[in-house]
Amino acid sequence: MNKTKGFGHYLDRTVKTIQTAYQKAFNTQSIDLTIEQWVFLQQIYEGGDFVSQRELTDLNFRTRATTSRMIGKLVDKGYVVKSRFEGDKKQFKLALSAKGKTTIEKLLPFIQDLRAVGYRNISEEDFRVFLQVLEKIWENYHQYELPTKIKNPLKSERVNSNK
Q: Which residues of 122-160 are buried (b: 16+ CB within 10 A; e: fewer)?
């Protein structure tokens, strides 16, 4: 691996390739969802009776505005029902509609087959190590604090020409 390129290149390349493969498979099967919409639907499904919009924002590392737009699209498509929590007018409660539940249940085997593509030719041990490395990288950056006296390498020092 070329460490001078940085691991971000490899992560981005892999994520984009996975997203492209999923979207191509969705399009081939005429599934009217994006990958992100699927992820949100599955998380609502796994949440049981309901999930708060705030929970989805946190689970997906998205902004509130991005989550709100995504939920709006899922509501417009008829997959999700959005309401307020009783006694709490600030949070939205999200639940799957009948159409959303049916869609999830029909698509789960298809999604499992797509996921299996990523595990091909990878031993359980290799996959375990891969997840450990990703977790360590996340921890490194999650705990990282920018030094307070860091010098911006793009700013040149001023030269006093009056000397």
A: eeeeeeeeeeeeeeeeeeeeeeeeeeeeeeeeeeeeeee
Average pLDDT over residues 32-55: 90
**Which pLDDT score is estimated for 90?**
74
The fold adopted by the segment(s) 34-142 is: Arc Repressor Mutant, subunit A (1.10.10)
The whole-angstrom separation of Cα 1 and Cα 146 is 27
Helix axes 7-28, 98-119, angle to 10 degrees: 130
Determine the pLDDT at residue 108.
92
Beta bridge partners of 81: 95
Would you give the DSSP letter of residue 80? E
What global pTM score does this model have? 0.77
76: number of Cβ within 10 Å:
9
pLDDT of residue 4: 64
